[in-house]
Design goal:
Shape: globular
Strand order of the largest sheet: 1-2
Largest sheet: 2 strands, antiparallel
Helix content: 25-40%
Order of helices and strands: EEHEEH
Mean pLDDT: 89
Structural class: alpha+beta
Radius of gyration: 14 Å
Oligomer: single chain
């Protein structure tokens, strides 16, 4: 494995490692998720995120 590869591993049923961190950073930077105002360490899916995930085929409720 090369040092530049993004690798991830499962940690408490969540994606961790460099891959998890890179994915998390992308989701924030591209506006798919945003920190909640009342709880800045809690993130929620944005309208843009819901739209993009639906475009990729993920089934989501009409409102979260």
């Amino acid at each position: 494995m090369k040092a530049t590869e993004l690798t991830g591993k499962k940690c408490y049923n969540h994606l961790g490692g460099k891959l998890g961190a890179a994915l998390f950073a992308f989701l924030i930077e591209d506006g798919w998720i945003a920190a909640k105002e009342a709880a800045p360490t809690t993130y929620e899916l944005t309208e843009k995120g819901m739209e993009r995930l639906r475009e990729m085929g993920m089934e989501l409720p009409d409102a979260l």
